[in-house]
Design goal:
Length: 143
């Protein structure tokens, strides 16, 4: 038996529930959209998460909120799921308001996810410029 399935495990209470993982749902929505099979129930669910800003704390499996921002903006732009449009303003506000003075979002992964989220929305502005500078400065340290 896997340790996390053991009832004495501290993770058991969290994992025994029927957890719905929003990041997996948005990625499946993206895959469905590529086959012109949008899922209105999933779209309502995801728009609700963005509206209520419950994504900002991350999830059990994806602790970074920037995974959600990246996946939603990817489904919206590349998957052409225009019904996610109500989520974009909340996501953009969150991303821009959480950027650090150095242009990052705390670590390389969060910075990459947040930056690509901005790019996915077609955003142009100083936060994106600072993010790109931050990424390039980080890469130049290794050259």
């Amino acid at each position: 038996m896997l340790q996390y399935l053991d009832p004495s495990s501290p993770y058991y209470a969290m994992l025994k529930k029927n957890n719905i993982e929003p990041n997996v749902n948005v990625d499946v929505l993206y895959a469905y959209s590529l086959r012109n099979r949008p899922q209105s129930g999933v779209i309502r669910y995801l728009n609700g998460i963005a509206e209520n800003k419950t994504f900002i704390n991350g999830t059990l499996y994806y602790p970074s909120p920037y995974v959600f921002t990246y996946l939603v903006t990817k489904a919206h732009s590349e998957g052409n799921v225009k019904e996610l449009e109500p989520s974009i303003a909340n996501i953009m506000d969150f991303i821009i308001s959480t950027q650090k003075p150095d242009g990052s979002w705390g670590n390389d992964l969060n910075t990459a996810l947040a930056t690509v989220s901005l790019l996915n929305t077609g955003y142009e502005g100083k936060p994106l410029d600072k993010a790109m500078e931050c990424i390039l400065d980080g890469q130049n340290k290794f050259s």
